[in-house]
Amino acid sequence: MPANTDSGFNRVASFYDPLARLVYGSALQDAQSWLIPFIPHGAAILVIGGGSGWLLEKLLQHTSPQHILYLEASEKMLQMARQRNQHQTIVEFRQGTDADLHPGEQFDVVITPFILDLFPEKRLTQLMQRLYAVLIPEGVWLFADFCPVQQKPPFWQKLLAKSMYLFFGILSDVKAKQLPDYKTQFSELNLQEQATKSFNKGFVQAKVFRKV
Ligand SMILES: C[S@@+](CC[C@H](N)C(=O)[O-])C[C@H]1O[C@@H](n2cnc3c(N)ncnc32)[C@H](O)[C@@H]1O
Fold first, then answer.
1. For residues 165 and 53, which has the higher predicted lDDT (pLDDT)?
2. Nearest residue CA, atom 19 of ligand 1?
3. Looking at the predicted structure, is the pLDDT value of residue 172 above 80?
4. What confidence tens digit (pLDDT) does each residue in 62-115 have?
5. Structure confidence at residue 163 (pLDDT)
6. Mean of all residue pLDDT scores within the chain
7. 3-state helix, strand and coil shares in percent for the chain, rounded to the nearest 5
8. Cβ 65 vs Cβ 41: under 8 Å
9. DSSP letter at 117?
10. Is the confidence at residue 149, as pLDDT, over 70?
11. How sure is the predictor about 195, in pLDDT bands with cuts at 50, 70 and 90?
12. Distance of CA 59 from the midpoint of ligand 1 (Å)
C-alpha cells in the first residue's frame, strides 16, 4: 500500500460529503459540475483527490471518456468511490498520490477538485509540477477550490478558512495552514486560464486552464 504523508481523510470519509453540504450547501458540487462540459469526447482523464466518488459518477454519466485514472490517497474514500461505480472497465481505481503516477502516463484532462488547498507551498509546487508533466500539450486542467478573490477577504471568509484548516488539521492531518497563492503557482506553469466561475460569493471558484 503506498504511503501517504500528506493527509489522512480515512477518518472523515464517512461524513465528509454531508459535512461539506451542511457548511457550503451545493456550492462545492456546483463548482465541480460546472467543469464537466469542458471535457472533450474520448479523453483520458486523471481525477486526483476525488473523494467519495460522486464526481466520478457524474463524469461517467455526462462525458464519454476513453479512460479515467481515479487516484485517491484515502483507502476509505477510494473504497466508497469504487462501490459507487462498480463494473466500470474504463476506470482504474488507484490508491496513492501524485508520487504514484507511472512513468509515461499522459492525460488529456487533469481534475483537481478541492485538493490543492491541502498543501503547504513547497509540496503544492511539487504536486502541480507532477500533474503538469502528465498533462499533454493543449491538455485541459480543471480546477475547483476555495479561493478568495479579493485582496482583503471579508471576515466570514477568513473565519471559515481558519476553521476549516483547524478542523482538517486535527482530524485529517492537513499540513497547510492557509489558502495557497494559486495564481502564482499556475502562472509559473505554462497554463492559460480559459474560463472561470465563482460560487459562494467568490470563496469557491472553478477554473479551466489549458497547457500551451
Ligand atoms: C478535501 S477532500 C475533497 C474530496 C472531493 N474532491 C470532494 O470535493 O468531495 C480531499 C481529497 O483528496 C485526497 N488527497 C489528499 N492528498 C492527496 C494526494 N496527494 N493525492 C491523491 N489524493 C489526495 C484526500 O484523501 C481526500 O479524499
1. 53
2. 97
3. no
4. 999 999 999 999 999 999 999 999 878 999 999 999 999 999 999 999 999 999
5. 86
6. 91
7. 40, 25, 35
8. no
9. G
10. no
11. very high
12. 17
C-alpha–C-alpha distance, residues 128 and 104, integer Å: 17
Report whether 49 contacts 112 (CB < 8 A): yes
Give Rg (Cα) of the chain.
16
Rounded CA-CA distance 155/170 in Å is: 23
Residue type for 181, please?
D
Q: Are 4 and 97 in contact (CB under 8 A)?
A: yes
Cα distance between residue 41 and residue 66, in whole Å: 8
CA distances from 82 to 28, 86, 98 (A): 21, 6, 19
Place of cell 466520478: 56
Of 78, 118, 175, the one to substitute when testing ligand 1's pocket (max ligand atoms within 8 A of C-beta) is 118
The pick from 19, 115, 119 for probing ligand 1's pocket by mutation, whose C-beta has the most ligand atoms within 8 angstroms, reads 115
User: Could you give the count of Cα atoms lying within 13 Å of 5 in the half-sphere of its Cβ?
Assistant: 4
Nearest residue to 58 via CA among 24, 94, 28: 28
Please report the pLDDT score of residue 43 as a whole number: 98
pLDDT band for position 2 (cuts 50, 70, 90): very low
Check if the beta carbon of residue 20 is closer than 8 Å to that of residue 45: no
Tell me the residue type at 177. K
Structural domains of the chain ordered from first start: 16-211 (3.40.50.150)
Cell of 186: 499556475
